[in-house]
Amino acid sequence: SSAMVDLLQTAAVPPGNRHDGPGSLSNIKGKKSSKKSRARRGKQGRKRRNKRKRNNRTPPPILPPEVATWFWPGINLKLVNPTQYRFEHLATQLKWRLQEGRGEAVYQIGVEDNGLLVGLTEADMKGSLKTLKRMAEKVGADITLLREREVDYGLDRNIRKIAEVLVRKVPDDQQFLDLRVAVLGNVDSGKSTLLGVLTQGELDNGRGRARLNLFRHLHEIQTGRTSSISFEILGFNSKGEVVNYSESRTAEEICESSSKMITFIDLAGHHKYLKTTVFGLTSYCPDFAMLVVSANTGIAGTTREHLGLAMALKVPIFIVVSKVDLCSRGTVERTVRQLERVLKQPGCNKIPMVVMNPDDAVTAAQQFTQSACITPIFTLSSVSGESLDLLKVFLNILPPLSNSKEQEELMQQLTEFQVDEIYSVPDVGTVVGGTLYSGVCREGERLVVGPTEEGRFLRLKVGSIQRNRSACRVLKAGQAATLALGNFDRSLLRKGMVMVSPKMNPTICCQFEAAIVLLFHAKTFRRGSQVTVHVGNVRQTATVEGLHGKDELRTGERAVVRFRFIKHPEYLRLSAKLLFREGVTKGIGHVTRLLPQDQNLNHDQNLQDY
Predict the structure, then answer these.
(1) Residues 281 and 263 grouped into a single domain
(2) Those residues with Cβ within 8 angstroms of residue 196's Cβ, 6 or more apart along the chain or in another chain
(3) CA-based, 20 to 30 A from 370: which of 11, 25, 515, 541?
(4) How far apart are CA 93 and CA 97, in angstroms?
(5) Among 105, 81, 53, residue whose Cα is nearest residue 403
(6) Helices (H), 67-190
């Protein structure tokens, strides 16, 4: 610090040379100074020292300048008593930033545009927050104070503060922000119990009571192990408060009250249900992945495999260490250190960040989406509720990965809906669930679904639409929903199909080429090998028809491989991520070329009425 530097500089000067005036120690012999002159010189010396200290005081800390990202859209020094013209300008600016952040924005008060942390006095901070609240009310939003801290530097005795404020739009007509989080982890790590506690608002009794509402089958209740994919929702209102089933709310009421919705995709942890877990990761397009690790067992079973799958598919991941109430503090710390070692390995290259307090949770949410290397780690208990609020703070301010511009570009494209689930609902008929990849889908819209085993597409009409179990008139790109198809024959549908606009001429193929890297194989990977291929919502066994430039592949090697589906053609997209497996054999890659099946039919002849 500058004080320490001044101290060292002063100590380095010999005592006899610190003053050159007539009253210095070197000239004091033979001379006498009056008390008045000594007092005057002492006063002048103090003035010179204070002036030197003011000139050498520590400069205020600096943040990086404002950048065009979701999380730092509003950096403002002071918003005290603006003129009417200035207020209208600020409100328009806030409205634009909310649109860019898909309904959310974070303002920093007391920070200059170049990132200098100057801070505001108590009165100016109250006035700025009052102005920001008026701006939010004008555009139909609420504000939440995330954190406030003091800026201390130099000799300024006035307390100055900076604040971070979350501005979130009040929901209207089902236009809430929806984030999908895939829940991964080894069997018995507490995934379903944690989701039950988050969404039901009640702590677990230590014997799995909280997870009972998540199970879909009797054998899941009897064994306590998830074998299918289930969905649970957690809402946050415009003020950042949790909205869940704690007050006997229905799913429709939760959606109506929420400005932000977290949809948890509960996946299976047991190794024999691995194909279900892989399908959930590839098909449902999760924005983030939450890896749950039991504190008393550490990294065991499928934990490493699930971590590798999320990283291979480039899904941002954060880690939750559960069951901390069952073991000592030393055991928890040992599990955290074990996770840190794995994350820092050359294959991962992650920077672990242990969240210990609310300030850490806010920082983790900020850094998580800005840097692909940051991996937050939470330690909590679903029985005692320890540190559960930190996870809620993190989820509340976790921003979306895509901005409004990217979503609008997808909405301009033709409609394409992935079929992930198929149901038969009494008095409704056939219902399909999935994700709208591109375009906009409305009630009553006419689409075509396929490909069938013969490679054809069938015409159909969309009835009603539901998002998170509540009615919705319009479905936008990137949103998940269920569509009612009326009396359409369910036997003609299967998982992996797509519903597209009749204007689209979809390319279907039995063969395709992909650039792959073989992650593991016990022997060699060669022509004739059969593997289960996952591409988006497509899951089918394929045969290796050939390797370009090589006869065989070993673990860690790369090549361009031609695959052939063994049952029926599929609809694929170029550059789509690909994952294949068979036993212990695993590999990843992306589609580089489609080889359409030979057809003599034109597009109109390839469509059939149902």
Answers:
(1) yes
(2) 204, 209, 210, 211, 212, 213, 214, 232, 382
(3) 515
(4) 6
(5) 105
(6) 84-100, 122-138
How far out from the chain centre does Cα 131 lie? 30
Which amino acid type is present at position 292? V
CATH code assigned at 467: 2.40.30.10
Beta bridge mates, 376:
353
CB-based contact 511:595 (threshold 8 Å)? yes
The reply to whether 18 falls in a domain is: no
**What's the rounded Cα separation, in Å, for the pair 599 and 461?**
26
Tokens standing for residue 296: 């008393």
Residues 287 and 370 in one domain: yes
Same domain, residue pair 425 and 380: no
Instruction: Tell me which residue range forms the domain holding 531.
Output: 508-595
Amino acid at 562: R
Angle at 254 between CA 248 and CA 258, to 5 degrees: 140
Phi, psi of 50 (to 5 degrees): -65, -40
Same domain for 537 and 492, yes or no, is no
Total number of domains in the chain:
4
Q: Residue 324 has what DSSP assignment?
A: G
Closest CA to 466 of 499, 438, 431, 496: 431
Q: What ranges make up the beta strands (E) of 267-316? A: 288-294
In degrees rounded to 5, what are phi and psi of residue 199? -90, -25
Residues 6+ apart with CB under 8 A from 265: 180, 181, 182, 183, 229, 230, 231, 280, 284, 286
Q: Within 13 Å of residue 460, how many CA atoms lie on the same side as its CB? A: 25
Chunk the chain into consecutive blocks of 10 residues (it has 610) and report each block's average pLDDT, rounded to whole numbers. Answer: 36 40 40 50 60 50 45 54 87 88 86 78 88 91 89 68 89 75 92 89 79 68 72 88 76 83 90 87 92 94 92 93 93 95 90 94 90 93 93 93 81 94 92 94 93 92 87 88 93 94 90 93 88 94 93 91 95 93 89 76 52
d(CA 344, CA 459): 51
CB of 396 within 8 A of CB of 142?
no
The three state secondary structure string of 471-533 is EECEEECCCEEEEECCCCCHHHCCCCCEEECCCCCCCEEEEEEEEEEEEECCCCEECCCEEEE
What are the tokens at 421?
Answer: 């689930």
The 3-state DSSP class for residue 120 equals strand
Q: What is the pLDDT of residue 5?
A: 33
Cβ atoms of 475 and 436 closer than 8 Å: yes
Q: Are 187 and 225 in contact (CB under 8 A)?
A: yes
Gyration radius of the chain's alpha carbons: 31
Q: Where are any strands of DSSP class E within 371-487?
A: 374-379, 416-425, 429-438, 440-442, 446-450, 457-461, 465-467, 470-472, 474-476, 480-484
Residues 348 and 489 in one domain: no
Nearest to 265 by CA among 226, 300, 297: 226
38 found inside a domain = no
Whether residues 81 and 104 share a domain: the answer is yes
Kindly give, in sequence order, each residue whose CB lies less than 8 Å from that of residue 568, ignoring residues fewer than 6 positions away: 451, 452, 453, 455, 510, 540
Residues forming a β-bridge with 500: 416, 448
Which token pair is 48?
A: 């010179």
Q: How far is CA 537 from the centre of its chain?
A: 21
Structure tokens at 270: 């047991």
Planar angle of CA 460, 465, 470, nearest 5 degrees: 160
